[in-house]
Please model this.
Amino acid sequence: MVPVLGLARSGPPSTARGAMSLSEPSRGLAALSSPAVNEPAVDEVESLVSRAAGGDDQAWSALVERFAGLIWHIARTSGLASADAADVSQTTWLRLAEYLGALREPSRVGAWLATTARRESVRVARLAGRRVVVDPWSELERVQADGPDADAALIEAEESLSVQQALAEMPVRCRDLLAGLLGDPPCSYSELSARLGLPIGSIGPTRARCLDHLRALLSKSEFGSDAISAGRRWS
Amino acid sequence: MSEHDELFDRLKRATRLAEVPPPGVLRQALDAFAWRGISTALAAVDYDSAIDDDDSARVRAASRDRRLSFRGNLGVLEVSVIDDGQRLVGRVQPARPGEVQLRYPGRTDTAVADGFGHFVFESVEPGPVSFCWQPEDGASGFDTEWVTI
Model:
């Protein structure tokens, strides 16, 4: 599993992985054992945007590594077949390349990408007859039209989106840790300890700090408040 | 169940159904960087029939033609995508002769705009495109945003 987080492990172009490690210089144990993990990751994202705007292609690769899954998710859950979703994704990244230096809030690039992808998905979904490979309306759309499950399905889709957006904005080390824990099967603490170079005893506390960080990001995000109440309802 | 475990469960639910983008999609995203900042004056989409027309307007139009307009400080570029997306006809304003480029992520087509600013592209391919307008008299032209056609 870990589709969103596990991008780097699932065989993307090697440059994405290489660039990620280069552009996120390993802060090693210090980052994980100190409160640095709790620093707002938006700063990290903001710096990637400004470096990419200055021509740093490794920063661009790191942005792709973080947000490509989110954009793909938005396009696919808009009911687009993969060829159309691929066009939406490509247009969204071309738009970002175009506006890189002109974003009003570089720290909110995740929200900017999500909005752009959503709008572009609507365009493409409405182009009747355009290269229809499969039924363009997803299961979700049918459920919505039909009845009592509609609200739950919609809430679930929004919840999934806001959580994925928050995850994409997390510091790299937190994302690596959570990816391991969300794996199918999940990594054991000893595997994680070896992979991340962390003492076993600090994995639990680091997980807790990362989850606190995630909660903070969620409560700041656009759909945060809805998503949190939805989450409570299901718990 | 602790607060952290609840949040972790939300995380599991949220990532459960997500798909990994195919490698080609990631490659295209990486390649988009080549288009960084080449635009100086950018004309943004200010009308798109696919979004701005309501259902009844689309029915009245009785056509699947797509109409798009890009507006910037230096002018307006309007296009219609016709013949099932195969042809693209358009015009620039202020009207004058010049050259229009139809840019795909991997290649560029060129058409001549006549004295009325009219131009045509044949054998148009679906996908992301943008336009670049350069008047013949050497006055400043402009680029448009990328849009999916």
